[in-house]
Amino acid sequence: MHQIQFLSSLSSVNFLTGISLVATDMDGTLTCKGKFTPPLLQAFQELATAGIKIVIVTGRSAGWVSGIASYLPVAGAIAENGGLFYLAGNDNPFALTPIANLSVHRQELASVFAQLRAKFPQIQESNDNRFRVTDWTFDVANLNPDELNQMDELCQTMGWGFTYSNVQCHIKPSQQDKAVGLLRVLQEYFPDVNQQQVVTVGDSPNDESLFNGDYFPVSVGVANVLEYIERLKYKPAYVTTAAEGQGFCELMKKILNSQM
After folding, report:
1. What kind of architecture, by CATH, is found in domain 7-96+176-258?
2. For 140-150, how does the pLDDT look when each residue is reduced to its tens digit (9 = 90+)?
3. How far apart (Å, rounded) are the C-alpha atoms in residues 176 and 97?
4. Whole-angstrom Cα distance, residue 234 to residue 51?
5. Which pTM does this prediction carry?
């Protein structure tokens, strides 16, 4: 059984001393009730001043993430759970999941969604699909764990991947996930950063691959991850006491203090 280690209960956080890059989910991890807060933006600025890079790794659409990468003091942002990467200062995304024919790809995703909706007529397409490239999303609200598991199995039988967050469900290419995308970004854009110098942060099932200790030995869940903890194959190594963006700020204070 996985033993949860709360950051607040640790006598030492020396494992954070060498951290040089924070790879973090956005919704439910950086936000508080869906919004960025002044303490979060202050934490971002303090990390940047300390020379610690931030890469956002989110399920949000390419359209949303291109703006996020431009306006926040981050090194870059990965969109669509590992589909594309936006490097800060560059408006052109790097395709982490190459797609030969975008029109055909979108049609195939729409077909999978239609087949899911035939079985689960209550599901509603997310309003940001028009801004997406690699995946297709619908709202997670009112879906229970059994229904989510059935959707996962149906997508797999059709040759597609499936994941969900506290906001949306994602139909995606089967090999596309946050860890695969982040590993490629580290190799291509941050070759001087090794995986032991990265802390990954998340809160829900679509962050599960970021909690895989074989890839990222230092992983942290903000406290609201505990809602999903029994559903996760890979669990965070550590958990904050506070939830959402307050939990992220809790972690950032410990990282900054460890650098002194």
Report:
1. 3-Layer(aba) Sandwich (3.40)
2. 998 999 999 99
3. 7
4. 29
5. 0.96
